[in-house]
Amino acid sequence: MHDTSATRHQDGLRIIAAGAVVILHYSDYFKDLPIGRFMVARTWHFNLFVDLFFVVSGFVIARQYFDRVDNAASIGRFLWRRLARIYPLHLATLAFYVALAGALHFGAARTDNPARYPLSDLPAQFLLLHAFVGERLTFNFPSWSLSAEMFCYLLFPLVALIAQRRKEAVVALVVLAALANSLWVSAAGTAPWADWINQGGAFRALPAFNLGIACYLFRDRIARWPAMPGALAASLAAFIVLGSLLPTMTALLAIYAIAMLAIQADCTGRETLLSRLGFDRWSALTYSCYMLHIPVATVVITLGSRLFSLSEHERLILAPLAIIVLAFASVVSLRTFETPLRRYLTEAYDRRAFKHMPSPAISRQEST
Q1: pLDDT in tens, 294-313
Q2: pTM beyond 0.85, yes or no
Q3: How many other C-beta atoms can be found within 10 angstroms of the C-beta atom of residue 140?
Q4: How far is Cα 331 from Cα 327, in angstroms, rounded to an integer?
Q5: Which residues contact 318 (CB under 8 A, 6 or more apart)?
Q6: Which residue from 28, 105, 311, 366 has the highest number of Cβ atoms inside 10 Å of its Cβ?
Q7: What is the helix (H) or strand (E) element at residue 331, kind and residue range?
């Protein structure tokens, strides 16, 4: 089992990033109020924290599996474990919104945005293809990043095979993926690729995920980079406060730089302000928080404001309430739903695949 303290800075960044995404999306619920418009205008760049997830995911996956996906059996086990981690909660939140769509259809509920629940999007949602062909902002829309992650997982064994022969090739893959995205933007006239979500989000994830893999492969060199005391905390704080002033692609590069500073700190094993603050102790809740924050907002903010007939200004009190409910729901989900079901699915697979040998233990890294 890997040393779980070896990614403290990346783990701390993950929960901070999840919190930032929550703030961005919850601000949007109050965009009709001056404070809501103010927050949305100054937190739009928080959506790029998803790209930080991709970088950290690439590093952690490479750290755990780089030399363990060299045949069909090990690749199958790897992909099943990733599905066991991400799919149950995705399916649960999707079921919540499908039930809500049914209630809307039969007149038991109402919505100002019926286009959010198109049945035509369900096949892509079920098959985790909605980062390719999904309709933007449907059902539990943050789940587009799961589709993008799954695409990266499917490619990971091939990337690992290439890197085992020549690890410098992974750096080329980072550059080529970013260049291909940029060329498509230029040719097709789309939005910057850092804004791609349900249509193209999988290709947005590739440069970041491969960057994480490259950082793992060159971790010894990264550890020898000159250390800049306070650089990680300062750059993170600057991005949070001033990132909305940056062009989209510049802000994306800033996110990549922050991720690499965290990786450098982890590779050197040194203490920083971020590690001393102990955010990493909450990192296990990152996925739960990310996947549940929109369903919680639907119940607490949207349905709550209608149930109690609250005015626009009175609704503001529901924002901190939603955050409290989200924290509680994330803990409950992790402990009573995600972890037990993941272990059950993993052990069931291992019992079938390894009938005549002991099942490998699940490490904490594999649960992230």
Answers
A1: 999 999 999 999 889 888 88
A2: yes
A3: 23
A4: 6
A5: 300, 301, 304, 305, 310
A6: 366
A7: helix 318-333
